[in-house]
Amino acid sequence: MELHALRRRDAGDWSRLRLVNESWLSRWEPSSTVPWSARHTPAAYRAMRRAVARRARAGTSLPFAIRVEGRLAGQVTIDNIVRGALRSGYLGYWIDRRVAGRGMASLAVALVCDHAFGEVGLHRVQADIRPENGPSRRLVERLGFRQEGLLRRYLDIDGDWRDHLAYALLAEDLPGGVLKHWRERADPLAR
Known about the structure:
Mean pLDDT: 96
Number of helices: 7
CATH superfamily: Gcn5-related N-acetyltransferase (GNAT)
Helix content: 25-40%
Low-confidence stretches: none
Strand content: 25-35%
Radius of gyration: 16 Å
Number of strands: 7
Shape: globular
Strand order of the largest sheet: 1-2-3-4-5-7-6
Distance between the termini: 23 Å
Structural class: alpha+beta
Largest sheet: 7 strands, mixed
Order of helices and strands: EHHHHEEEHEHEEH
Number of domains: 1
């Protein structure tokens, strides 16, 4: 597994990946009047990449592409970063269904969280997840995120206002870091 910045040359691969994963991803995505196929063209990727790059330069986003076995397989981003007394950001991620269940998304999130808590200097990362999204809830729970509450009718997702569970991880929650915690959970003998 490899993480890197979103690259211009990945537009076609991103588009194909998002289109083939529509049934896997669409129920967790923001509502839109624009059809899925129109929102996931190479041109849509280029526009998204430019917007995310602007936010990254401004210090309000940490966007990464996930590659597995050399192929684009997803994204993980900490967005809406606030500095000052809060030093917080919101975690979002998606992974290709063909590599789901192999620990790649967990590993990517662990690495990005360690980067956010270390070099970037964040204190808190929050992940808001629909209650019925069991795989996503298990991912953050395995990484040490704690459920903090219910956000009623929080986001317009898949055609309706959906409740979300608020999870958060603080920089001091896992001495040694999120990656160390992930490794210990993956291999109990490594403790």
